């Protein structure tokens, strides 16, 4: 979807947690579009943020600000003078103490700071975790933006990541209403694709374990996937489209783990990809139905899950996180 470059030049936006997997891509695409970006990070001098400084346009239009989600003053300084805020920073953990409090209070702080700075719109990165954890949903119900995770169910199953995401999103809507902030939320599923940051994030480990031989079997479970570039673009589209409102489910397709390993084995047969399911007693889990129509209506064209998986592995190889096995005949040639 073409954007008028003249309209964004001189526009300053803030991206929280700028060094993260999704956030790095948001920063990249914003810079490509001509925005000036203030990225909040814990320590601007940390080498793990070098990849941001190397992005096209970063020298001219990227400012890394030292900020902490629980330090209101630092957020205020980063957000003041911005036209918009992309709040992506969030802990990814299943430890309730590390997850819930920073996720909720950090989100409230960002929205209050945005209200005080009179920003035009806040785009908040929530998660499918805030949407689909509901034991009472029937198999034929289409998961869409109207669905919310059942907090008691998340608590009882000790799924603190989903619990934290759901509670943080509820808090975001509450504070935004109270402070009259224009809030739009993106709910991505499991995000794959090329890494810009040097470290491996949680969603990528999900694929890496099938290639290294550390996973001998695959689980009898389903997962929805989406390409990181599509997630970043979704954030920008909802920011740039005045009529955008509410939540946006960001998913390309739902696959059984068996389908995932099959696709990986077709592309990369040289790796020890598991062929056996860890649960052969129970029937194979069926993918749930979902709708991503809201984002398609904004002009987002989703990248296929096969491409997501291919790009993820290629990126892991390029970044040195995954060794490329040497075929036998090549090694013989080299020796001779």
Structure overview:
This protein has 336 residues and is of the alpha/beta class. The protein has a single domain (10-322), classed as 3-Layer(aba) Sandwich (Rossmann fold), CATH 3.40.50. The protein is 42% helix and 15% strand. A seven-stranded parallel sheet has the order 3-2-1-4-5-6-9, sandwiched between helices. Strands 7-8-10 form a three-stranded mixed sheet. Helix 2 crosses helix 10, helix 5 crosses helix 6 and helix 6 packs parallel to helix 8 (160-179). The longest helix has 21 residues, at 96-116.
Summarize the structure in short.
This protein is an alpha/beta fold. It has helices at residues 5-8, 21-33, 50-53, 58-61, 72-79, 96-116, 151-156, 160-179, 202-212, 228-240, 257-267, 293-297, 305-318, 328-335, and strands at residues 12-16, 36-41, 62-66, 84-87, 121-125, 183-188, 190-192, 222-227, 246-250, 253-256.
């Amino acid at each position: 979807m073409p954007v008028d470059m003249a309209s964004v030049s001189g526009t300053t936006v803030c991206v929280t947690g700028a060094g993260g997997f999704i956030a790095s891509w948001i920063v990249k695409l914003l810079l490509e579009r001509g925005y000036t970006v203030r990225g909040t990070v814990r320590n601007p001098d940390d080498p793990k943020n070098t990849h941001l400084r190397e992005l096209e346009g970063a020298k001219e239009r990227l400012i890394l600000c030292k900020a902490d989600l629980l330090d209101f003053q630092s957020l205020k300084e980063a957000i003041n003078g911005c036209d918009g805020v992309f709040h992506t920073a969030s802990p990814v953990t299943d430890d309730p103490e590390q997850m819930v409090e920073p996720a909720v209070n950090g989100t409230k702080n960002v929205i209050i700071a945005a209200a005080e700075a009179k920003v035009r719109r806040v785009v908040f990165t929530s998660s499918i975790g805030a949407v689909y954890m509901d034991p009472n949903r029937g198999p034929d119900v289409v998961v869409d933006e109207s669905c919310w995770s059942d907090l008691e169910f998340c608590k009882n199953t000790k799924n603190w990541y989903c619990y934290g995401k759901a509670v943080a999103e509820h808090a975001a809507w509450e504070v935004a209403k109270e402070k009259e902030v224009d809030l739009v939320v993106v709910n991505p599923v499991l995000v794959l694709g090329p890494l810009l940051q040097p470290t491996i994030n949680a969603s990528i480990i999900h694929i890496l374990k099938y290639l290294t031989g550390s996973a001998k079997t695959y689980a009898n479970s389903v997962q929805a996937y989406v390409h990181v570039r599509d997630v970043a673009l979704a954030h920008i589209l909802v920011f740039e489209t005045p009529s955008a409102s509410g939540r946006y489910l960001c998913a390309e397709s739902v696959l059984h783990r068996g389908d995932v390993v099959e696709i990986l084995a077709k592309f990369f047969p040289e790796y020890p990809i598991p062929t056996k399911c860890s649960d052969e007693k129970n029937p194979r889990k069926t993918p749930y139905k979902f709708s991503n129509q809201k984002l398609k209506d904004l002009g987002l064209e989703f990248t296929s899950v096969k491409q997501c998986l291919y790009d993820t592995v290629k990126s892991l190889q390029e970044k040195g996180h995954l060794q490329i096995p040497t075929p036998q005949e090549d090694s013989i040639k080299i020796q001779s």
